[in-house]
Every structure is written in C-alpha cells, then in structure tokens.
Design goal:
The complex is a heterodimer of chains A (180) and B (244). Chain A is an alpha/beta fold and 180 residues long. Chain A is 43% helix and 17% strand. Chain A has helices at residues 3-25, 49-61, 85-104, 119-129, 148-157; strands spanning 38-43, 65-73, 112-116, 134-138, 161-165. Chain B has 244 residues and is α/β, with parallel strands linked by helices. Chain B folds into two domains: 7-96, P-loop containing nucleotide triphosphate hydrolases (Rossmann fold); 104-242, Rossmann fold. In chain B, 50% of the residues lie in helices and 12% in strands. In chain B, helix 7 packs parallel to helix 8 and helix 9 (183-194) runs parallel beside helix 11. The radius of gyration of chain B is 25 Å and the shape is elongated. Chain B starts with 13 loop residues before the first helix and ends in an 11-residue tail after the last strand. Classes of the chains: A alpha/beta (180), B alpha/beta (244). Chain A binds chain B through residues 18-23, 27, 29, 32, 34-35, 65, 72, 76-79, 81, 83-85, 88-89, 92, 95-96, 99-100, 103-104, 108-115, 129-131, 179-180, and chain B through 15-16, 19-20, 80, 83-84, 122-123, 125-126, 129, 132-133, 136, 155, 157, 160-161, 163-164, 167-168, 170-173, 207-209, 212, 235-238, 240-241.
Chain lengths: 180, 244
C-alpha cells in the first residue's frame, strides 16, 4: 500500500469519526420501533405512582410505547369542541411528570389529552382513532378517578387486554420516584 | 342610553344556552352591542330570588308562572345562566383593562403570538403543550405549524401522531396550520402572515453532515426571521444526563 493511500484512509477515517462524534455523544431518546405495541394508561385527575411504575415496567418488558392519556371532562354547559384551558392547566404538569418518569426509565412515551362528556366517552373517542394493544387502568379509589361503573364499561369495551391495577393504600406504598 | 338584557339573548352564547336549557332562544342580539357599551353592569340575583319575583307576578302574568317555573325558570337553568352572566361580565372587565389609548400599531407591537413547529411524531405533543404554557404566560395566541415536504407520504404512525396533534390543538384552543414546501421559507411566510413574535422548535435532531452541508435549522431560523424570538424547547428528561 502506498503512503498516499494510507494517508487517504486515515483522513477519511478521521472525517467519519469527526462527523459521527456529536451524534454518538448526543443523549439518546428512547425511540419506539415501527409497529411497536402501545400500552394505554388512561387516568382522570391523578395517576397513582404505584400504577404508573407498574405500567412503565410492563412497557419496558414488552418494548412497548407508553401512552398516558389524561381524560378531560367537558361540562354540558360547554360545546364539545370548546377549548378547556383551566382543565389543561391541571393536566400539563401531570403529563410532564409521567413523561419524565417513562423517558427516565428508557420507555418511549406518546402522551395524550382526550376529552369527552364522561371518562368513558373520552376513552371511546380515543379508541375510535388510535390502536392500543393493552390498557392499564387504575382501579377506583375513594371517589377519585374511574368509578366502578366506568371500570365495568372499560372491561366490556376495551380494544385490547385490560389490566386493572389497584393503587396501594398510602401507608403501604413505598416512596416512588416520578423522575426516573 | 341605559338598557337591560338577559344573558341568554347574547348571540355568541346561543349554543351554550341551548345546551344548558334545552331551549333554543330565537331573539338574539349581536355581541358588538355589548362591546360598544361604555359600561356593562351585572344585575345579579339568586335563582331563588328570581323565582320569588316570578311567583309574585313581577316577571310574567300569573297564568304563565307555573309553566315558566317548570320550564325555563328551573333552579338548575337559572344557576347555569347566572354563571354564564358572571363569566361574561368578568371577561368584559378584563378586556376593558387593556389600555384604551393604544393605537392599533402599538397594540400589535405589544401583543405576543407564538408559532410552534411540529412534526408528526410523539415528541411534538410535549412541544405543543410546552408552547401552549408559554403562550398562556405571555397572554398570546398559539399557532401550530406542520410543514409537509413536497410529495411526503406519511406512515400509519405519523398519521396517528398528526391526528392526535390536531385534537390536542383543539383542546388547547390553538390554531393548527399545514403548509407544503421547504421548512424555513414556509415558516417565514406563516410568521409574517400571523404576526408571530416567538417561534418554538424542538431540539433539532440534525447530523453534523447536514449542518455542514445545509446549515443548522436554528441558525437558518435566526437568519430568516429577523425580529422574532426563537426558542429551542428541550426534553426535560435529558437534564439528568447533565450530571458530571
């Protein structure tokens, strides 16, 4: 091999490393593979950290995309398509925290805010336009979140496997780090 | 001139009133009349007090009282209409707090308008939400723009993401815009048309090669959008990778 060829190879290799280096150093975002399974975690008002942690574990085990969906209820006094800024103000930090926890755990996340006249109506709207392989639902707790009637409806109508997770009582629950 | 009106006759509230009361009010007046009034004063009354006045024959003749009480003048209807009236007047007061001395040009100069560049992928959900929060703090409107490359075909995932972005825009009260062409010229055109004062972009996922060959997106936006603030919205989850 001539010296000039050797120099050329070294220069080309150096250029390749130089061009690729920032990409190698850039923090990797968890990215979903095309056609990856999608796990829906719908919630109303609040999402129990124990349920979230379980949903993240399931998504990680299945290489799935976690889809946390905050369901906004549109009061009858407003038209169905009206913007809901006050409700969204509440949803924003919740979704940020959920996304943060999922991405921190290396799970790709694709959050949603969906609205409807009731939690089940909002879910129905979401299921009508998006595909989900599994639904992870927090069980009813002390009047918050889904009602037993909602859960019955979800079990009957969910488009995929449904998992109802009972949040642990406060005194039993270990501290859960939301921020990964 | 002094006049009184019932809130259910305001044109923009006609649909809300129909939903609340199941009664479509046919006699409406344009909102412009209220906007042009020098002063708007709320005459507030509890539903019970209004029903009392009705029973005393101070609203309708006695023979119509019973029917009215069981139809339009039900407590739930009156409570909802009262809430509507309170909100309407509160919004009117808020609008009037804007300094009246500003000419249209000055008003345009102080009004903020955010334009966020989205793409049909999951991270744009967060980008749109974060931009909306900033727009709220700035008291400005939010436009979301997706620039489709000429002839670009979308995958199933991208179509789902795009539809979800549109739904989120509706919930947030943002305007979703779609353009076809090259990104930077399209942003420039839309920013000029909409009077944008801020442009929000997600962290560009650009290779060094692209930057060398075509320049970075952010530099191009700074160059092509003079007088407009450019903000790069990072993924907060990446902060934990900052630790030394």
């Amino acid at each position: 091999m001539k010296a000039i060829e050797l120099i050329l190879i070294v220069v080309v290799a150096g250029l390749v490393v130089l061009l690729a280096w920032p990409r190698l150093r850039r923090p990797r975002r968890p990215a979903a593979a095309p056609g990856a399974r999608r796990i829906l975690v719908p919630f109303v008002g609040n999402l129990d950290p124990t349920v979230l942690a379980a949903a993240i574990r399931i998504a990680r085990a299945e290489d799935a995309v976690l889809v946390p969906a905050y369901l906004v209820i549109v009061p009858l006094r407003f038209p169905e398509e009206s913007p809901l800024t006050a409700e969204v103000q509440v949803a924003m930090p919740m979704l940020e925290a959920v996304e943060h926890a999922a991405l921190g755990a290396g799970v790709p996340v694709d959050a949603r805010i969906e609205k409807g006249r009731s939690p089940t109506h909002a879910l129905q709207r979401l299921w009508a336009v998006e595909h989900f392989d599994r639904v992870v639902v927090p069980a009813p707790t002390d009047g918050a979140g889904f009602s037993p009637k909602d859960i019955t409806w979800i079990l009957a109508h969910a488009p995929g496997e449904t998992l109802i997770l009972r949040p642990r009582p406060a005194e039993e629950a270990p501290p859960v780090r939301l921020a990964g | 001139m002094i006049s009184t009106v019932n809130v259910q006759h305001l044109e923009s509230l006609n649909d809300s009133v129909a939903e609340l009361t199941d009664i479509r009010v046919r006699e409406t007046f344009p909102d412009r009349i209220l906007d042009e009034a020098d002063e708007v004063v709320l005459v507030d009354l509890t539903p019970e007090a209004l029903q009392e006045r009705l029973r005393a024959g101070k609203v309708y003749p006695q023979e119509r009282v019973e029917a009215a009480l069981t139809n339009f003048f039900r407590t739930d209807n009156l409570s909802a209409l009262r809430e509507l009236a309170l909100r309407e007047v509160a919004e009117d007061v808020e609008e009037r707090r804007q300094p009246a001395v500003l000419d249209p040009l000055s008003r345009q100069a102080i009004t903020e308008r955010v334009l966020v560049l989205v793409t049909p992928e999951p991270r744009s959900q967060r980008l749109l939400r974060r931009s909306w929060r900033s727009a709220q703090r700035l008291g400005g409107e939010l436009d979301a723009l997706w620039v489709r490359k000429p002839g670009q075909e979308l995958s199933d995932e991208e179509r789902t993401s795009l539809a979800a972005l549109r739904r989120l825009a509706v919930i947030l009260g943002a305007h979703f815009l779609e353009e076809e062409g090259e990104l930077v010229p399209a942003v420039r055109k839309v920013a000029a048309e909409r009077g944008s004062t801020y442009v929000f972009v997600g962290t560009p996922d650009e290779s060094r090669r692209r930057k060398v060959l075509r320049g970075s997106l952010v530099s191009a936006l700074v160059r092509e959008l003079p007088g407009i603030d450019i903000r790069v919205v990072a993924n907060r989850a990446d902060r934990q990778k900052l630790a030394p």
